[in-house]
Amino acid sequence: MKWKINRRRWLIDYVIRKSLSGVSCVMKVSESDVAGTRCIIAGLVSAKDKDAPQHIDEVEAMLTRLGATVVGRVVQRRGVSSAKKPGGVTKMNAPLRAATIIGAGKVDELAAMASDRQADTVIFVNPLKTSQESRLKEITGCRVLSLG
């Protein structure tokens, strides 16, 4: 982990050497995006990634430093299937559903949690397409941000 703080713009570049998807990425979140919000951290992680809980903890710490209140987590773990066809390992980092990146059950869980805990923002640790962000916003009723 490496933190660089540019105090003039209140922009934090959060660099993860080994991100949740196994690829290095730079996540940019401005303080104005999350300050004073009640947020839920969500994401899709590989079952093989043993550091995933630590990465989620670090994202939560970063959001707390920026002034957000983290009210919950929804993490979809993608494991190797027991199917007879090979290829389960190669699909470990692929989205579970193209429309929402996580499965339908986790989307329902996320929407229920957002409603119960009065969250106003859902922050995904994975990169999301614009269509995925808008679909998740429609389902949860919350603003959706992607750190990836």
Brief summary:
This protein is α/β, with parallel strands linked by helices and 148 residues long.
Please outline the helices and strands.
Blueprint: E1 2-6, E2 11-16, E3 25-30, H1 31-34, E4 38-46, H2 52-65, E5 69-78, H3 104-116, E6 121-124, H4 130-140, E7 143-146
Parallel strand pairs: 4-5, 4-6, 6-7
Antiparallel strand pairs: 1-2, 2-3
Series of secondary-structure elements, N-terminal to C-terminal: EEEHEHEHEHE
- The percent range for strand residues is 25-35%
Taking the sheet with the most strands, its summary is: 4 strands, parallel
- For the largest sheet, list the strands in their spatial order: 5-4-6-7
What does this structure look like?
The chain is an alpha/beta fold and 148 residues long. 28% of the residues lie in helices and 30% in strands. The chain has four helices and seven strands. The chain has helices at residues 31-34, 52-65, 104-116, 130-140, and strands at 2-6, 11-16, 25-30, 38-46, 69-78, 121-124, 143-146. The strands form two sheets. The protein has a four-stranded parallel β-sheet with strand order 5-4-6-7, with helices on both faces. Helix 2 (52-65) links the parallel strand 4 (38-46) and strand 5. The longest helix is centred in the middle third of the chain and has 14 residues, at 52-65.
